[in-house]
Amino acid sequence: MDAVPRATRRWALSVLNFTSNSISSIEKEAWREYPWAEHLILQDNDLRAVKRHSLEGLLLLKHLDLSGNKIQSIEERAFEPLPFLQLLNLSGNLMARIQKGTFQAWHGAQFLQEVILSHNPLSAIDDAAFFRLPAVAYL
């Protein structure tokens, strides 16, 4: 599977697990049919970037696992569509830099408690990269 599949029924799925597929990009409105999802697992796919539109439609999402991909870049405000996000796992990717605005959102990402960045070739983190993340307890 190289793309997020369309829902075959309108069930209120709370966990979406797309582990170990070949998903390389996320189209705009890919999550429109999954509005009740609280956990999204995209571990071990072929994602190379997280774009600003990649996560639209996941308003209730609390846990996002993007570990084990090939993510090199995250667009500014890419996580803004996720006001209730609590855990973000970005481990095991190819990110060399965390830029200012990566975690920025109009709602202040007030519930984000844990950001996992282990096993990335990080060489630079902008000074304000983690600005306005009041609940982060684990980084």
UniProtKB/TrEMBL annotation:
Keywords on record: Leucine-rich repeat, Repeat
Keyword set includes Repeat: yes
Pfam families attached to this UniProt entry: LRR_8
Superkingdom classification of source: Eukaryota
Stored PANTHER family: LEUCINE RICH REPEAT CONTAINING 37A-RELATED, LEUCINE-RICH REPEAT-CONTAINING PROTEIN 37A
The name this protein goes by in its record: Uncharacterized protein
